[in-house]
Known about the structure:
The structure is a single chain. By secondary structure, the chain is an alpha+beta fold. 27% of the residues lie in helices and 37% in strands. The strands form four sheets. The chain has a six-stranded mixed beta sheet with strand order 6-7-8-3-9-10, sandwiched between helices. A five-stranded antiparallel beta sheet has the order 13-12-11-14-20. A five-stranded antiparallel beta sheet has the order 15-19-16-17-18.
Amino acid sequence: xxxxxxxxxxxxxxxxxxxxxxxxxxxxxxxxxxxxxxxxxxxxxxxxxxxxxxxxxxxxxxxxxxxxxxxxxxxxxxxxxxxxxxxxxxxxxxxxxxxxxxxxxxxxxxxxxxxxxxxxxxxxxxxxxxxxxxxxxxxxxxxxxxxxxxxxxxxxxxxxxxxxxxxxxxxxxxxxxxxxxxxxxxxxxxxxxxxxxxxxxxxxxxxxxxxxxxxxxxxxxxxxxxxxxxxxxxxxxxxxxxxxxxxxxxxxxxxxxxxxxxxxxxxxxxxxxxxxxxxxxxxxxxxxxxxxxxxxxxxxxxxxxxxxxxxxxxxxxxxxxxxxxxxxxxxxxxxxxxxxxxxxxxxxxxxxxxxxxxx
Length: 359
């Protein structure tokens, strides 16, 4: 049975629909990452699941019980959850006092509190700061205090809203390690919102893509990032080559997509005549300065129109009669002397092309 189930959830602020027809299920011990652009409705959804706000319509079930309406059942369910906000909230007291707060509120005994807080302090690697005022800590340390306070009460569901937003890479890595440790140690069910797609891939069992208040797709990271359901998801997950075309032929599961006189072959079951987008991830494209034998079904020659280096990688923009973007290592780009106006050969496999129906 799902620990959390959201059915046909809608939320309006004034006349604006902030969430529309949300349907998700989260099993016990599962980590679900909600990814999406800023303003997509991720925080609003977390607040509804944490029962802080009432939905305009729809149902929320916690452990099989309807907790949508106000009342005792809803309050009891809230006590089994914890919510860590994007901007960590710490009280004007010691780190120890911050972590002990929830336990005291629940009436835990002094010895129990002492044992639990010290255990959690060690887990989050903040034992040396236990007597320090939490408001003097760095952003990453304060976030660890907020997470520690949440897990001290051993919630069945931990909700995290952008847990590493605005943190440096080292602090981000520590928070991610802590989240993984929580899952492994307590088997806690986690629902986290993040705009960092790679973070969702690293930490989550499943990913839900939330765009403009709607869940466009849920599934494993491989499914979402390589087989997006529509153009909106494809664009968000970084598929830079989304090429409009029409299925011109189909044979044994391989289709020919006509893109204005040129043809891209893809593995697809769309029928002839279907208007589609052919999606190719830049890293699935191989570039060379001369034609070479290859098993790839797709091979095009074109002129480089742009070279943009980002860290150890370089984006190569090519005009093949249609625009194409390839991703290579910076070292490869330098060794092959990829520069604007140079002609290159771009190849990619039919299995590397994902087709989606055009809206």
